[in-house]
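Long-time lurker, first post. I've been practising inverse folding by hand and with some scripts of my own, and I keep getting stuck on stretches where the structure tokens seem ambiguous. Below is the full token string for one chain I'm working on. Before anyone asks, I'm not after the true native sequence, just a reasonable design that respects the backbone. If someone could post their per-position residues I'd love to compare against what I wrote down in my notebook.
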């Protein structure tokens, strides 16, 4: 169902940064091409340097051409570029915010409902909100005014609470949109639908039938040019604190009373708050970290590419993890005793984000080591659902083998919508259901902080794994039982060991 969007102005802070180039501008152009932007919607890009209007328009064209290399639709481009404006907001100009306000207040150009997208350094979130408020730009008495805050929301629980306290001086909760772009992925939204729109899963979705759950994000990519950011963050805070705990919440939460945003968020919050924080004393059995060294990763052309180790990229010693695996337990009757393994790593042998659910042993074991049933919800690169079962090998003997039912979520004619496109649209529509409530953010930090603190204080050398390899064998220390192992590729007959 298409929701109505009031005429509005999207104000992009950090407009020349990477996110804007790769996701936001192309996403807005796509929304325009799909006819999803209101006619009189405008985009005001805010950047540090002085840029002439025509130069900015040329720059936007470059951003789009880099993404849509098959060419742009000139009719759409003409409409899109006419929406685009640029405003300099130099950090050493004390009048910068007043100038921005004067520009935006011109309602002959800019519709007065404003959505601010803060794609800026996290340390600047609070001060930008304060400055917007000081010049009246957050006042929502006549028009709506919304602020989207990129991740990370704080760097630990205390910092998240400080940020929350400072922005809520000026904004009401319904004006704040804390983004987690994973929630905009169709395959993630599908978790809830798969669970609750099918009868056969719900009766099995508990500790009586499920042995364990793995929530995995593996990337072949390294940290790239984000070394400084990454070294102050690490894999656990970068991926697990946000995207993977949200994924876990969708897999494990109770059925909401209805599909209203508030009901869904209430169930996610309850779930996140019932995950037991890892006790520092048992950390070595519940969390494992490692860092990639040089090695070979799959390259686009099908060959492999030699890549540097993390330390070489960073240029100084560091114990920051590029691999993190943790084991969590949920203290509620449904999940009592079921381990949830959450792992994320850069420079692995494959890129894959998936939820792998292993069921308990079958009542009949015909051969030793008979595979258990697995249900795999693949988020990317494939969006699919795969169920593995044991069946009889045809012939005279009684023997079993695994077959798999593999369903693609996406059909050739389906729209392919990037998560940022969904979330940008939701922001303008005023639909916060795919954004984080502060209680979720806090619950997530409470789980992650003790691990990060313990790792930071631990001076023993960090385990190294060659770029392009599978999980370090030593990571198996966190498994609850000896017959558990990391699931990899979801292809039929894919690696299982
Ligand atoms: C970002 C992390 O939030 O998510 C990156 O900062 C990570 O390190 C990225 O690569 C993964 O997102 P996606 O959508 O490519 O899985």
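-- Answer (accepted) --
I ran through it position by position. Result:
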């Amino acid at each position: 169902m298409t929701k109505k969007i009031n005429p509005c102005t999207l104000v992009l802070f950090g407009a020349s940064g990477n996110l804007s180039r790769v996701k936001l501008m192309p996403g807005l152009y796509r929304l325009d091409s799909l006819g999803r932007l209101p006619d009189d919607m405008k985009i005001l890009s805010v950047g540090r340097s002085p840029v002439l209007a025509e130069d900015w328009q040329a720059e936007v064209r470059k951003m789009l051409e880099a993404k849509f290399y098959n060419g742009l639709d000139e009719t759409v481009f003409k409409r899109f570029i006419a929406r685009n404006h640029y405003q300099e907001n130099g950090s050493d100009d004390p009048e910068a915010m007043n100038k921005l306000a004067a520009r935006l207040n011109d309602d002959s150009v800019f519709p007065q409902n404003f959505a601010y997208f803060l794609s800026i350094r996290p340390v600047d979130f609070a001060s930008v909100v304060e400055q917007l408020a000081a010049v009246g730009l957050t006042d929502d008495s006549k028009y709506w005014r919304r602020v989207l805050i990129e991740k990370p929301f704080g760097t630990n629980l205390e910092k998240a609470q400080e940020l929350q306290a400072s922005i809520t001086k000026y904004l009401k909760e319904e004006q704040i949109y804390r983004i987690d772009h994973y929630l905009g992925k169709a395959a993630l939204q599908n978790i809830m639908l798969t669970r609750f729109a099918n009868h056969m899963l719900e009766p099995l979705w508990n500790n009586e039938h499920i042995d364990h759950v793995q929530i995995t994000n593996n990337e072949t990519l390294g940290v790239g040019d984000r070394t400084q950011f990454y070294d102050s963050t690490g894999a656990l805070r970068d991926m697990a604190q946000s995207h993977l705990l949200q994924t876990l919440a969708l897999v494990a939460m109770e059925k909401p009373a209805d599909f209203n945003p508030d009901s869904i968020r209430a169930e996610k919050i309850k779930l996140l708050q019932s995950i037991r924080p890892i006790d520092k004393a048992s950390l070595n059995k519940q969390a494992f970290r490692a860092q990639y060294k040089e090695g070979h990763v799959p390259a686009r052309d099908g060959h492999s590419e030699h890549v540097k180790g993390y330390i070489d990229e960073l240029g100084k010693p560091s114990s920051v993890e590029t691999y993190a695996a943790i084991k969590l337990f949920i203290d509620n009757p449904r999940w009592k005793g079921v381990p949830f393994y959450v792992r994320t790593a850069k420079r692995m042998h494959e890129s894959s984000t998936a939820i792998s659910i292993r069921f308990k042993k079958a009542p009949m074991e015909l051969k030793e080591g008979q595979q258990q049933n697995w249900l795999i919800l693949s988020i990317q690169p494939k969006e699919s659902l795969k169920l593995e079962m044991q069946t009889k090998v045809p012939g005279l003997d009684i023997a079993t083998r695994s077959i798999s039912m593999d369903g693609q979520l996406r059909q050739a004619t389906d729209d392919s919508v990037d998560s940022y496109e969904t979330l940008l649209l939701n922001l303008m529509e005023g639909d916060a259901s795919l954004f984080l409530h502060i209680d979720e953010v806090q619950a997530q930090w409470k789980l992650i902080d003790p691990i990060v603190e313990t790792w930071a204080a631990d001076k023993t050398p960090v385990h190294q794994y060659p770029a392009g390899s599978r999980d370090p064998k030593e990571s198996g220390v966190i498994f609850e039982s000896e017959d558990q192992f990391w699931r990899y590729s979801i292809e039929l007959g894919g690696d299982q060991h």
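A couple of notes from the structure itself: The two ends are 44 Å apart (CA to CA). The pocket of 6-O-phosphono-beta-D-glucopyranose is lined by residues 219, 238-239, 353 (CB under 6 Å). Happy to go over any region you disagree with.
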